[in-house]
Amino acid sequence: MERLRVLALNSTYDESFIRQVEMESGQQISRCYQCGNCGASCNYTCVYDYPVNQIMRLIQLGQKEVVLSSRAIWLCAACTACTTRCPCNIEVTKIMETLRVMSLEEGTVSLKDVELFYKEFLRSLKNFGRVFEAGLLPLVNLRIGRPFNDMELAPLVFKGRKIHLFPSFIKGRKEISAIFDRFESWRRKKEDLS
To answer: What is the pTM of this model?
Structure first.
């Protein structure tokens, strides 16, 4: 989505969006006073359509459509630099994760390749108990129609023996998978109620 220069606050203000973000993230958005530390500490601000502090302000202004269709919420690496430097002790990374989940539920994801990666990452975690890196990237590249993307990296990665050619199964894999199943069951019940 193209970055907006002017907001029609009277017609786009959604107070329920503010309450939903606060409830689901467990963070009080109104405590943010726009110091800019989060945006200044973020390494990805240069590729965001809206810096983190502006995402926070847009939430305060109830701009659901703009926030949930922004690139910034999907490009966030959840490194917690913003959270660490927040003088109000707001866990911004929890808010960004909450916004990603809301964006998925609303069907407003702006970066479809990132959405696919996100879903495949979680599926790998559910299946193996940890992410199977050597299988994740080729699968994502195949699904987005670029099967040979990043192939030149494979010899370097395997040479360093940091990534295994075959998936490893950890203890507690079934318990991790059960967490995903419980969440899916909860989400289906939530959808049935609405």
So the answer is: 0.76
- The Cα–Cα gap between 19 and 117 comes to 29
Q: What CATH fold (topology level) applies to the domain 9-106?
A: Fumarate Reductase Iron-sulfur Protein; Chain B, domain 2 (1.10.1060)
Domain ranges of the chain: 9-106, 112-193
Q: How far apart are CA 54 and CA 104, in angstroms?
A: 21
- Residue 71 tokens read as 């690139």
Tell me how far apart the terminal alpha carbons of the chain are, to the nearest angstrom. Answer: 28
- Find the length of the chain: 194
Residue indicated by tokens 């983190």 = 52
Give the span between the Cα atoms of 69 and 63, in whole angstroms.
10
User: What does the pLDDT look like over 174-185, one tens digit per residue?
Assistant: 898 899 899 888
Question: Is residue 116 within 8 Å of 144, Cβ to Cβ?
Answer: yes
Burial of residue 87 (CB within 10 Å: 0-12, 13-18, 19+) is exposed
